Every structure is written in C-alpha cells, then in structure tokens.
Amino acid sequence: MNILDKIVEKKIEQIAEEKRQVSIEEMIKRAEGKIIRDFTSAIRDAEGLAIISEIKKASPSQGIIKEDFDPVATAKIYEEQGFDAFSVLTEKHFFLGDDSYIEMVKAVSSKPILRKDFIVDEYQIYQTKAIGGDAILLIASVLKEKLPEYYRKSVELGLHPLVEIHSEKEVAYIEKADPMIIGINNRDLETFTTDVRHTEKILKYLPKDRLVISESGIKGAEDLKYLKSLGVSGALIGESLMRNLKDIKKVF
Q1: Total domain count, the chain
Q2: pTM tops 0.85, yes or no
Q3: Which of 9, 34, 84, 164 has its CA 20 to 30 A from that of 110?
Q4: 2 has catalytic annotation
Q5: DSSP at 12
C-alpha cells in the first residue's frame, strides 16, 4: 500500500465520523451564501507564471516542515509577496492541517484559496465551500470514475476544481470531466521522490488550451524558468517557501 492509499483509507474513516457529527443537510446549509473568489482568473490573468503558494506544517515525506507553524503569519508574508493564489492544507493526520486554517487565512488575505485535501466523498465538496474554500483539489487516481460527477458538482457550487494527475495513464480519467485547470504532480507515489521534469513528460498528453499547474519538487528560480519555457500556466510551491519564509528571495 503506497502513501496515497494510506491517506485515502484514513480519510474515508474520518469523513464517516464527520458525517455523523454534521449531517450533509446541515453542511449544505453552511455552504449557502459563501462568497467564492475567482481562482481560475487568478491563474489565467497572472503576469508570467502564476504562483500558488502553499501553507502547510508537515508532509508524509518530510515530516515537520515548520516547527513554529503559523498559518496567519504565513499568509501575510505570501500576501506581501503578491503571490497569485494560496493552497491551504486541511488534511489532519499526515499533513497536520485543519479546516479552520482556510477562514483564518482568508481573513488576512485577498487571494483565492485552494483547499488542499483528499476528496473521497461528495460531502467534502459542500464542506469545502462551507469552510471558505474557493478551489477544490480533485485527484484523478483517487476518484477515477467518480471524477466527472465530482467535477460537475464542484462547478455547480461555484467552486473552481483543480484536477490532479500523476501519470500518463491518468489522463484517461480526466477526459470525461474535461477540466479547465489540470495539476501535474511531480511526485512518484511509490518512492515519494520528485522530479520537476515530470511535468514535461505529461504535458504533451494534455489539451493545449488548459491551465496547467506544475506541483511538487519546485525548489527555486531555475525550476520556475524551466516550467515557464514549457508554457505551463503556474506552479504550486510549498516546502521551499515554508522553509524560507524569513527570506523568500532565496527561493526566487
């Protein structure tokens, strides 16, 4: 069982418990009236390569990334840097995230927020909107044949789905969903190593008119220059930024 399978298994257990605590009917009510910031336009209209800066405390591969983790302070730094959108980890067990971080970050920033979690149940789509998310991560290898349905539901609610793939074979999963924003994850789920050049390998299989985001393993200016040369729309950067919050210029 790879790490993604372990995360999904735990997530299914977690959502079952959350549904017992807050019914889907109640979650639907909580989602009503929430204002959605335009994540898609933030990526499309960015000057040059759009930067989605990630707010996270830990990861399964690296453990604790930021001991003195403060989502609000981090968001303020990212806001000052003028990044185009934020990604906020809400997964509790492996990334030490929390749903409350989204509203905390939204209160001190003007940027659209991607809820970074592992969606396994329709309940979480309503939940994402209810907790203040503007965009939602849908992982093709997790949802498979459910992906088109979850994509449509997300769009119906006004959310902006980012559909993530890891490999060439997963391109088939996204054809029916026909997503506008596609994330290419550069992480090998078996070894958990990253290679930013993985983006180039997968990019050729995707429609040319899509907004493509390169995710994971982006360490600095050279990687960004390389990605820009490929013609991708943006980059999602987490660990490199979190480790250099006091001097982000080290990354760029």
Answers
A1: 1
A2: yes
A3: 164
A4: no
A5: H
